[in-house]
Amino acid sequence: MKSKKSRxxxxxIEDLVGRSYMAFCVLLLIVIIISMVYFVAxxxxxxxxTGGVSVGEFFFGTKWAPEADTPSxxxxxxxxxxxxxxxxxxxxxxxxxxxxALFMTEIVPGWGKKLLQPVIELLAGIPSVVYGxxxxxxxxxxxxxxxxxxxxxxxxxxxxxxxxxxPTITSVAADALAALPQNLKESSFALxxxxxxxxxxxxxxxxxxxxxxxxxxxxxxxxxxxxxxQMVIGNAPFVPKSLFESASTLTSVITLSMGNTTxxxxxxxxxxSMALVLMLMTFxxxxxxxxxxRRNKI
Amino acid sequence: xQFRKSWIMTLALTxxxxxSACGSNNGGNNAPANAGGNNAAATNAPTETSSGSDLSGxxxxxxxxxxxxxxxxxxxxxxxxxxxxxxxxxxxxxxxxLTQVAEKQVDIGNSDVFAExxxxxxxxxxxxxxxxxxxAVVAIAAVAHKDAGVDGLTKQQLVDIFxxxxxNWKEVGGADQKIQIINRPGSSGxxxxxxxxxxxxxxxxxxxxxxxxxxxxVKKMIGETPGxxxxxxxxxxxxxxxxxxxxxxxxxxxxxxSGKYPVWAYQHMYTxxxxxxxxxxxxxxxxxxxxQTADVVELGYIPALNMQxxxxxxxxxxxx
Lengths: 298, 320
Known about the structure:
The structure holds 2 protein chains of 2 kinds.
Chain A (H helix, E strand, L loop, with lengths): L1 H48 L5 H6 L3 E2 L6 E2 L2 H32 L3 H15 L2 H19 L7 H25 L3 H9 L4 H30 L2 H7 L16 H8 L8 H32 L1
Antiparallel strand pairs in A: 1-2
Helix pairs in contact in A: 1-11, 3-4, 3-6, 3-8, 3-10, 4-6, 5-6, 5-9, 6-8, 6-9, 7-8, 8-11, 9-10, 10-11
Chain B lengths: L1 H32 L2 H8 L13 E7 L4 H14 L3 E8 L1 H9 L5 E4 L3 H4 L5 H6 E2 L2 E11 L7 E2 L1 H8 L17 E4 L5 H11 L10 E2 L3 H10 L3 E6 L8 E2 L1 E2 L6 H6 L5 E9 L4 H10 L2 H5 L1 H4 L3 E2 L5 E3 L5 E3 L1
Parallel strand pairs in B: 1-2, 1-3, 6-11, 7-8, 7-9
Antiparallel strand pairs in B: 3-12, 4-12, 5-9, 5-10, 5-12, 5-13, 14-15
Subcellular location (chain B): Cell membrane
Main location (chain B): membrane
Membrane topology (chain B): Lipid-anchor
């Protein structure tokens, strides 16, 4: 009787310690997240509340001149620039990543995976400043010599980003392909389908929602990437007329100007508004991933 | 099982409730004091000692990345001489430095522009409280890609180029080559200096112009891009780019000191009100002959001590 009681108590203590430690961690996380959201939102919204900039002007205005005598805060060039490089990067990277994932899981699961996996993981580990510098030293001169323009611009930014998001999409896609029930493939082969028919008619359609999750995660990364893009995109606050003309993204204008503006100035607040847009976009991407996951389960 | 589940639910509910209360509080407290961490450092700053010679205390400086290397190097030397003093130098940009010194989060705010130019409108009174210490001068030269075929430009030609009126080098006597502007971001101190003293007017960003935020990248871009024009501090100039004379005056250290070459700006170290003993000793040390002729020159700045001309906030130049 006694021994049983003491064992129970030990259990209780362990349980309590574990539970309170977890509660503390969760508490801290939630506090950090809530205060960050609050901080960015309160700073970002002040452009519209106290700064007198209309929401329409901010989102659709194309004139960005915060230091001019009659300042204007049209952030459309940055918002459109961000979406443009992100979509282009996803368009370039997705087919490559899906092929790499198929290669690793379906075509040569043995040495293909052993060789490709570390290479792709290595890509994920390279710091973004290195990507930016390679972009500036290799991609920009190449584009300058091949296409009209100065090489700098949306095309260069999208190319650099596509390499950066390659690992994200590939690893998610490879996981999705590996998790596919074996019997689906086997029944397809049993029906006399070739490998290509199996991949294109059975494997890809069934895993598409999971692969799309990877693509969206990659796009989220591309949308938030600052340094590498800023180095190659040119940073002119205009909607570019071609892919080879200097343009800007939300992240590039924030990193370019945040340190040089004083806290509380309308210029600085406008940058916070852009940070708010970035944050809301991240929420949207996360929501999209959730949606895809739910679809995947059915 | 049933019991455990309900337990977890209650816990989750209570913690969420507790957090939402706690969270909003925290957010509220954080907002005004933004970089809270710096407050502590600033408040435990210099404690006065009885004897004047052996100083002690800590100094926190932040701001301009252009001035940072100088302040860091001099701080090292100063700390070697005064064991009791601890100096920390952070970057962050001129705007950050001025904001933080105005809010007393740091002891010294480094800036490449006059505080009055950054703290305008509602913040103007903040600028009035700041005391300026001009420790060095940085001169800026217009530079072009080597194949532009031009040795110098006049003020009007520069204005035409940077406002987009002139788009080909042949219009200013150079090669038949499209001009590509490599600019600094609108908030940059270097750009403000160039616009104020070389162009005499603010310019708007042009479609297709390139903006880079570090001098190293600007130099690389100008060196590589055919037809490029931009501007760099004198310490960055070398053979990879073509340095342009301004209205016929070569951008050289001697011409800046004598006042012939006008495109230069002070490097400021601002304190909030008169500095305390330790901070003052540090600022005085930077102005000594020993530092001005060695460290300042070595790092590519022009000693403020040598300047034969002085300039005020409005840009009026007077002979010293």
